[in-house]
Amino acid sequence: MTRWDETFDVIVVGAGFAGLTAAIEARNAGARVVVLEKMKAPGGNSIISDGGVAAAGTPLQKQHGIEDSPELFYNDMLQAGLGLNHPGLLRVLTQNAAEAFRWSEEYLGVEYMDRVDRFGGHSVNRCYAAAGITGATIIRAMLKKIKELGIPLRKSTCLEKIIFDGERVTGLSVREGYNYKDPEAGTIKNLQADSGVIVTTGGFGADVAFRAVQDPRLTGKIDTTNKIFATGEALVEAMRLGAAPVQLSHIQLGAWTSPDEKGFGSGPLFADYIGFLYGIIVHPDTGKRFVNEQADRKVLGDAILSVGRPSVCISDHGAVEHSGWDISRALKKKVVKTFETVEGLAGHYGLPADALSQTITEFNRAVASGVDVEYGRPILHDSMPIKRPPFYAMRLWPKVHYTMGGLQINEEARVIDLDHRPIPGLYAAGEVTGGVHGACRLGSCAITDCLVFGRIAGKNAAG
Amino acid sequence: MTRWDETFDVIVVGAGFAGLTAAIEARNAGARVVVLEKMKAPGGNSIISDGGVAAAGTPLQKQHGIEDSPELFYNDMLQAGLGLNHPGLLRVLTQNAAEAFRWSEEYLGVEYMDRVDRFGGHSVNRCYAAAGITGATIIRAMLKKIKELGIPLRKSTCLEKIIFDGERVTGLSVREGYNYKDPEAGTIKNLQADSGVIVTTGGFGADVAFRAVQDPRLTGKIDTTNKIFATGEALVEAMRLGAAPVQLSHIQLGAWTSPDEKGFGSGPLFADYIGFLYGIIVHPDTGKRFVNEQADRKVLGDAILSVGRPSVCISDHGAVEHSGWDISRALKKKVVKTFETVEGLAGHYGLPADALSQTITEFNRAVASGVDVEYGRPILHDSMPIKRPPFYAMRLWPKVHYTMGGLQINEEARVIDLDHRPIPGLYAAGEVTGGVHGACRLGSCAITDCLVFGRIAGKNAAG
C-alpha cells in the first residue's frame, strides 16, 4: 500500500499549453486539481513558441473572406503527415480547433492579432498569431485563469514514478525541490489522484540519448530549438507502465537554423522568410544548389543534414528590401553576414567562386524563365534574380524542433497500453503524445493540439 | 520464486534463420540449448523467402570480377535507410557478412547458385541465391545441423512471458501445445535459462492491430506477404519488461503485389521484373502515370497506396519476351491478364481509353528521347516502347512485407532497455530487432542480418 502525502482528484504533470488547459477544464468540471512543473517557472517550451494557432472555420476567417473547413484542414495535416496521422485523433483536432480557439479568446482572454496567416502546407490562411507573436501571451492568460480558479501550481516538482495499483493509476511519486543540475536533490512525496493523472510534459527534443535511439543522426552534434529540459522521462515512465509508444522515430528538424548561434535564434527569420523564398541554398563543397528551397521542413532538413556539414543560404539586398522583414538582430549577432561581391562571399565561406557565380547565373535564368527544371522549385510571382549587392548569407544546419511521436492516446485523451486498451486513470495531451501529426507537423498546429486535447483530457480526467 | 519445469543454458525463441543460427553457435560454444517454435513446423517466414544473401568481399565476387567492400555495402544500406540505421549495428553487419556467408556455405553446407545478382539499391552485384531461389534450402541445412548437434526443437511451443528476477532474465513461461486458433489451449511450463534467452521471433507484419498503431494506413484492408503468425507478442513481452523499441513505424511495403491473390503470390515476378522496368503504372481514375516506376520500394509503395485503390501496371509482349521470365503461373491464376488492344485493356480495368492511349504515346516518346521529364525515371539501355500486342496488365496494391523496427540491441546482440542499458540475460536477432536497416531495408539484407546477429547472439548468450 502506498502511503499518500496528499490527495487530489486530478494531477496534471507539466505547465505548458496542454497542462494548463487541462487543469482549467478539470477544475471547471468540479475536480480538485494540482499542476506540477519540474522547472522553477511554468511555461515550458510553450512560452518560447511563436504563439501561432491554426483553426478552420473561424469568425476571423469569415471577416477576411477566407473559405475553409475542418475537412480541408484534415486533408492538409494528413498530407503533411504522409498519411501516418491517426485518423480519429486528427478528426478530433480539426473539428474542435475553431471552438478551442474561440475558448482561448473568449474564456481565457488571449489577445490575437487581427490577421490570418498561412504557413507552409496549409492550403488556406488559417493561422492566428497571439499578440506579440509569442506563446508567452497565451501562457500569461492561462496562468491568470489558473490563479482565479485557485488551482495550485507546484514548481520545481518532477515526476519520478507513476503509481499503478494493479488496476489503475492512483497517483505519482514526485520529487519536490527538483534541480536538473542535481537530480538527487529534493524530497520524494506521494501524491494521490482519486480520479486521474494527466501527462503533458512535452517532447523529447533535448533528450540526446533518447532521440538518437530513434534517429541516430540526431547526436549531440545537433542542437535543438527546445529548452534543455525537453527530455523524455515522463514518456519513459509511462512506457515502463506498458503504455504504447507511437511513431517515436518521426522527429522534426528545423531547416532554417544556424550553427552560429544557440537554440532557435535570430537566423530563421532570414532563412525561412527571405532566403528560402527568394534566395538559394548551396552545397559547401560544390557551390551548387542541391534541393528545392521551398520543399517542406522534412525534405529540407533531411537534405541539409545529409551534406554532413553546414550549407550556405544566399540572398541579395533586393529580396531583403522587398520582404519588409527586419533582420537587424541576425546581422548584429553576425549570424547573417553581408558581402559586396559574390567573390567575397565565396571566399568567406570557402565556396568555389566560379561555381557559385555559375549557380547564381543559372538560378537567375530559372527565375526569368519561370521554371526551375533541375530542382522543381515553384517560381513565385514576386521572385527576383540574385544580383543587387550587398549579398546576404547565413550558414544552415538543422536543429531538432519537435517530436511527432509519443504516447498513444485515444479520442478521449486516455493513454493506450500495448494490448490496445486504455490504462485506467492515465491521460495525456500535447507533444508527449504521438499520432496526431504523423510523419511531419504543420506549422501552428502544435498549440491547437495542446488546446483541443488538453481540454478533452481535463474534462475526462475529472471523471 | 519461480518453479522451473526444465533447465537449459540458452533458450532460443523462434526457429527461423536467426534462431537456428543462434542455437547452432550457442551449442558449439558449449551450451545446453533448446529451440522453441510456436507453429507446428519450423522455418517461419524464412522458409518462404527467396533465400537471397548479400555480402561484400566474397570469393564468388572475385571469381566474377566484382570489386566490392564492406564500406561500399555500408554506404548503400545507409542511403536506403535514409541515414536512420544504427551505425554500430550496420558496421557489424557489413563487416561480418562475408564471413557469415562463408560459414553458411562451408559449415552448414548451404548450396548457392553460381551467380552474383544485384538488387535495387546495391551499387554492385553482391547478392547470392540459395539453390532453388528459396529460403527452404538454407532452413533445411540448418535443421540438419541442429539434428547433428542434438539440439532439441520444441514445436507448438509459444512464449507467454519473459521471467525477470529483478536483476536478470532467468527464463520463460511458455505454452506447450500452442494452437493459434485456440490461444488458451495447451499447458504452461516454466523453462529456466541459466545463461541467456535469445528472442528471434521475426517481424509483426501480420499483426494488424499492432502495425496500425505505428502506421495507420496499414489496416486489415492491406494484406501481407508474411505468414499469418508474423505477430508481435514476443516484441511486446520484451517491451513490457522495459526493452526499448526502435523505429517501429518504419514498415516496408511490397509495391509489386496484387490484390487479386493472397500473400506474396505470382504477380510480383511480372510487376518487379517486367512491368516496372519496361512498362508503366497508371492511376485507376485518370489513366495517367503518377510515379517513377523505378523508384525504390518505399517511394513506390507509398505512392501506390496514396491513390486509395489499386493502380494498373501495363507492359507489352515485346517486354515479356525480352525479359526471358516465365510468367505463366501469374497468367494461369489470372493475376496478370492479356489484351489484344489498349482499348480492351482500358475497358476491363475501367480506365479512360483515350487518356491511356495518350499516356502510352507520351511514355513511348520519352523512351525514344531517352529522358522521362515528368517522372524522372531513368531510361534503361534496353528500354522499348509499349506497342506490341498482346498487352499485359496487373492490378497493384501494396502488401506489408517487412518491419524494419523492433527491439533495440547493441553490437553484442544484447537487448537494451529504456535507460540505455543491456537487460542481463536477454538477446535478440533478426527481424524482431530494429535499427540495422533504418527507414528501408535493401533486398537480400534480411538473411545476412539473421546470420550475422544470430551468430553473435548465440555465442554471447552461451556466456
CATH class of the largest domain in chain A: Alpha Beta
CATH superfamily of the largest domain in chain A: FAD/NAD(P)-binding domain
Helix and strand content put the structural class of chain A at alpha+beta
Helix content of chain A: 25-40%
Identify the overall geometry of chain A.
Answer: elongated
**Rg measurement of chain A, Å:** 23 Å
Low-pLDDT ranges of chain A: none
Helix count of chain A, per DSSP? 14
Oligomer class:
homodimer
In CATH terms, what is the fold-level topology of the largest domain in chain A?
FAD/NAD(P)-binding domain
The beta-strand count of chain A equals 18
Mean pLDDT of chain A: 96
Report on the biggest sheet of chain A: 8 strands, mixed
Task: Describe what this molecule looks like in 3D.
Two copies of one chain form a homodimer. The relative contact order of chain A is 0.20. Chain A folds into two domains: 6-204 and 401-461, FAD/NAD(P)-binding domain (3-Layer(bba) Sandwich), CATH 3.50.50.60; 256-397, Flavocytochrome C3, Chain A, domain 1 (Alpha-Beta Complex). With 463 residues, chain A is of the alpha+beta class. In chain A, the strands form five sheets. In chain A, strands 1, 2, 5, 6, 7, 8, 17 and 18 form an eight-stranded mixed sheet that branches. Chain A has a four-stranded antiparallel sheet with strand order 11-12-14-13, with helices on both faces. Chain A is built from 14 helices and 18 strands. Chain A is elongated, with a radius of gyration of 23 Å. Chain A starts with 5 loop residues before the first strand and ends with a helix. In chain A, helix 12 crosses helix 13. Chain A has helices spanning 17-28, 59-63, 70-80, 87-106, 136-148, 208-214, 233-240, 267-278, 297-306, 317-323, 328-332, 342-349, 353-369, 445-461; strands spanning 6-13, 33-36, 52-54, 127-129, 153-154, 157-164, 169-176, 187-199, 245-246, 251-254, 280-282, 311-316, 336-339, 391-396, 399-403, 406-407, 414-416, 422-428. The A-B interface holds A 82-87, 209, 213-217, 236, 239-240, 242, 244-250, 302, 305-306, 405, 408, 416, 418-420, 435 and B 82-87, 209, 213-217, 236, 239-240, 242, 244-250, 302, 305-306, 405, 408, 416, 418-420, 435.
